[in-house]
Amino acid sequence: MTSSNILGDILKHLRKNTNYSQKDIAEKLGIAQTTYASYENNKREPNIATLINLADIYDVSLDFIAGREFNIYMAKRHKAIEEVNKMRENASNEEITKMLELLYVLLDVNGYTNIWNKDNSN
User: Fold this and answer.
1) Do 57 and 51 form a contact (C-beta atoms < 8 A)?
2) What percent of the chain has pLDDT over 90?
């Protein structure tokens, strides 16, 4: 991921992980869907007011939107995936099922909207 396309990648990642459509976000911002799509495709850059609104919509910081925290987030995510895969290799199907059940409870999967770990905000 290069710095020239990171904003679009981050916006797309945030939108997909919160189950919004481009139209949903565009409506929240009061802009055309094509304008929002151009942000995700790195054809246009949102102004600061729009960036603030996007941070509010996705419940992330402006630093995250700007990519300053995104690499930290992705590194944590990658490490977590590696650890889960190691645990899975040695676990029985019953243990895996139990781990998944506990994760669903912890994340409140059906109602959970904020996907970001804000450990760094302490």
Assistant:
1) no
2) 41
Residue 56: alpha-carbon gap to chain centroid:
13
> How far is Cα 33 from Cα 48, in angstroms, rounded to an integer?
18
Do 76 and 31 belong together in one domain? no
Q: Which of 65, 87, 108 is the last residue of a domain?
A: 65
55, 61 contact by CB (below 8 A): yes
Q: How many residues does the chain have?
A: 122
Among candidates 16, 14, 25, which has minimal Cα distance to 50? 25
Q: What is the pLDDT of residue 92?
A: 87
- Distance (Å, rounded) from C-alpha 9 to C-alpha 58? 14
Residue with tokens 């929240």: 28
Q: Are residues 61 and 16 in the same domain?
A: yes
Cα three-residue angle 70-73-76, rounded to 5 degrees: 150
